[in-house]
Design a protein that fits this description.
D-Amino Acid Oxidase, Chain A, domain 2, eight-stranded mixed beta sheet, 27% helix, binds flavin-adenine dinucleotide, FAD/NAD(P)-binding domain, nine-stranded mixed beta sheet
Length: 400
């Protein structure tokens, strides 16, 4: 049985960042454990898990919902240039981020100017449709829209490339990586024995950091479940040609946070290259039909087949076409994803048991601050507490 000082379970955005920071101290005493992304159409086994980051683009904003989210976002972006330079992997496109409320200034817009000023974020308040049309002519909004436009380093991050960069840095620092799915943990010998799927030999670690995102309660690692809800998300990929890709190359990412009868929480990224070599505008949103999950089998069924959701494609397609009038789209694809929410709607960094910590609680906004969350979780593992100046109660877990 391989023995390590620290094991990080979950090789996603947060776990890979945490592992890269932990490897600074632990070197070969650290092991990052997680399965690779399942191949499209691959058979789903009883232990198959997915992730929230299997996509080409995630929005990076700076001003968050409060001062702590804002600090997390800013500190994450401050790490990008160094990580790109060190690994040679490009994952950050600082094209800016536009937040729009279609119904006057909502809570976020009322708080944003003061939060931004306190954090030194440069942004432009766009009080009406005319100001929005002048600042970002490609977009069109209904209602009485009000906007908030942040320039770089706000924009887009490429989550698969960011994960690859964190893992590359971790390996350069001597850390080890194991492609495996954890199916259980038991205290043993002052640490934890981790059971792995597919008959792989067990692994022992003195300390374990669980960073399994939506699958946190499905790993068999926690002694009691973390309070969270799991929700299916729909996204639509709208294919664009080379000319449109070029024309929209600097389109700011969009958070269109209005409530409409049959959709809300709309977000959009401009043309990104997908693994098939084509370019797509991506839009996602909540719809009343979104499913909620309690079991891994339900999640697996959601990822296995989008047929049941195809009837919703026209609704999403109409929204993309309304936001980007005059753009010709060559094809449309519906995708299934998963997010999880905590009761506090904030990320969790907490201790589950002696030597066992958890970082989770994406709440739909944690790709943009994954580097900072990983750094804080790593610090807590090493020092038993968050760095000075961070409020542990903000990150405290609710246990079920
Ligand atoms: C459609 C969609 C759009 C989003 N858009 C944005 C956005 O624009 N901006 C933003 O900031 N955030 C966005 N998010 C949220 C963001 O993607 C998540 O916050 C982020 O991925 C969370 O990172 P994570 O590492 O916690 O989880 P994940 O990235 O999901 O990684 C979890 C990892 O755990 C692994 N794992 C699971 N179970 C096991 C196990 N048993 N053993 C070992 N490993 C395991 C998985 O393989 C996975 O790699 C979006 C989410 C979705 C679904």
């Amino acid at each position: 049985m391989q023995r390590y000082d620290v094991a990080v379970v979950g090789a996603g955005l947060v776990g890979s960042a945490a592992a890269a920071y932990l490897a600074q101290d632990a070197g070969p005493g650290l092991c990052l454990v997680g399965p690779p992304e399942p191949a499209e159409g691959a058979a789903i086994l009883p232990h198959t898990v997915f992730a929230s980051h299997y996509d080409a683009g995630r929005i990076q904003r700076l001003t968050g919902k409060d001062a702590t989210w804002t600090r997390l976002n800013l500190e994450a972006t401050q790490a990008y240039a160094g990580l790109e330079a060190e690994t040679g992997l490009r994952f950050h496109a600082p094209v800016g981020c536009l937040y729009v409320s279609p119904h006057w200034a909502d809570d976020y817009l009322q708080a944003a100017p003061a939060l931004a000023a306190a954090a030194g974020v440069q942004a432009t308040y766009l009080p009406d449709a005319a100001a929005l049309a002048k600042a970002v002519p490609a977009y069109r909004f209904e209602g009485t829209p009000v906007g908030w436009l942040e320039g770089g380093p706000a924009g887009i991050i490429m989550p698969r490339a960011l994960v690859a960069a964190q893992q590359s840095r971790m390996r350069q620092r001597g850390g080890r990586q194991l492609a495996a799915t954890v199916i259980g943990a038991q205290p043993e010998d002052g640490g934890y024995r981790l059971r792995l799927a597919d008959g792989q030999p067990h692994l022992w670690a003195r300390r374990v950091l669980l960073a399994a995102g939506a699958f946190t309660n499905m790993t068999g690692v926690l002694p009691r479940p973390l309070a969270m809800t799991l929700k299916g998300e729909l996204t639509v990929l709208a294919e664009v040609d080379a000319d449109t890709t070029q024309r929209l190359a600097h389109l700011p990412a969009l958070l269109y946070e209005g409530w409409f009868d049959d959709r809300d929480g709309i977000y959009l990224t401009g043309p990104m290259r997908y693994p098939n070599g084509r370019y797509y505008v991506k839009m996602g949103c909540n719809v009343p039909e979104d499913p909620y999950f309690n079991t891994l089998a339900q999640v697996q069924a959601w990822f296995a087949d989008t047929a049941a959701s195809q009837a919703l494609l026209p609704r999403l397609r109409a929204q993309v076409e309304a936001l980007l009038p005059g753009v010709a789209f060559a094809s449309w694809q519906l995708r299934h994803c998963i997010i999880h929410r905590t009761p506090s709607l904030r990320p969790v960094i907490d201790q589950a048991a002696p030597g066992l910590a958890v970082v989770a609680g994406c709440n739909g906004y944690s790709a943009m601050c994954a580097d900072a969350l990983g750094r804080l979780a790593a610090h807590q593992m090493v020092h038993g507490q968050l760095p000075a100046g961070w409020d542990a109660t903000w990150f405290a877990a609710d246990w079920r």
